[in-house]
Amino acid sequence: MFYRPSEGHGLPHNPWNAIVAPRPIAWISTRGAMGDNLAPYSFFNAVAYTPPQLVFASTSAKSDRDGTKDTTAQIRETGVFCVSIVSRDLIGAMNATSAALPAGTDEFQHAGVAKAECETIPCPRARDAPASLECRLVQIIPLLGKANFLIHGEVVGIHIRPDCLKDGRFSPPDRLARLGYRDYCAITETFELTRPDET
Predict the structure, then answer these.
(1) Is 194 contained in some domain?
(2) N or C: which end of the chain has fewer CB within 10 A?
(3) Which CATH number belongs to the domain containing residue 43 in this structure?
């Protein structure tokens, strides 16, 4: 089949949601005047090594947050955020924090997520995550479409859970990813591949 997104796909579910997958999940925490917030985003990835940088996209709005979501609103307010990596054992809590709760609701409390303070920024993080990335905002880029924003951050602090370090490498028991629709996967099997220019 071929379709133009501007003309519709004619399927019961939008295939675009699942074509680019698996996508890592950014479990993003913020702190603002209205309190602490925690929410998952699957339009997310690392984009540079030195300095380490990442991006995620916020793609809809809440009626109580002036054309965006709690996460983006609080990043605009403070200029900082933390990205925690989600493992399979945290999937229930991660899913609970995806609810569109009223602004000012503490999703850590709502979902029973243990909270810890960041070291380099005034922000909470998910204490039991395999890794957490403390970020300073570089820029918020408006994207095509209503309420679509790309948030670009520099990673200024990294937390790694001790059991996720093996032989000097980050090696969590699994890596949770979004496949689109309601589909997720927990990646447990990996393999190494040598590049042609490596000796």
Answers:
(1) no
(2) C
(3) 2.30.110.10
- Spatial neighbors of 191 by CB under 8 A, at least 6 apart, are none
pLDDT in tens, 16-28: 999 999 999 999 9
Band of pLDDT at residue 66, cut at 50, 70 and 90: confident
pLDDT at 187: 95
- Identify whether the C-beta of residue 154 lies closer than 8 Å to the C-beta of residue 51: yes
List strand residue ranges (DSSP E) for 53-182, in order.
Answer: 53-58, 80-85, 115-117, 124-126, 131-142, 149-160, 165-166, 169-170, 175-180
pLDDT, average across residues 51-56: 98
Euclidean distance between CA atoms 83 and 52, whole angstroms: 13
Residue 57 forms part of a structural domain: yes
Question: What 8-state DSSP symbol labels residue 150?
Answer: E
The pTM (predicted TM-score) of the whole model is: 0.95
The residue whose two tokens read 């890596």 is 175
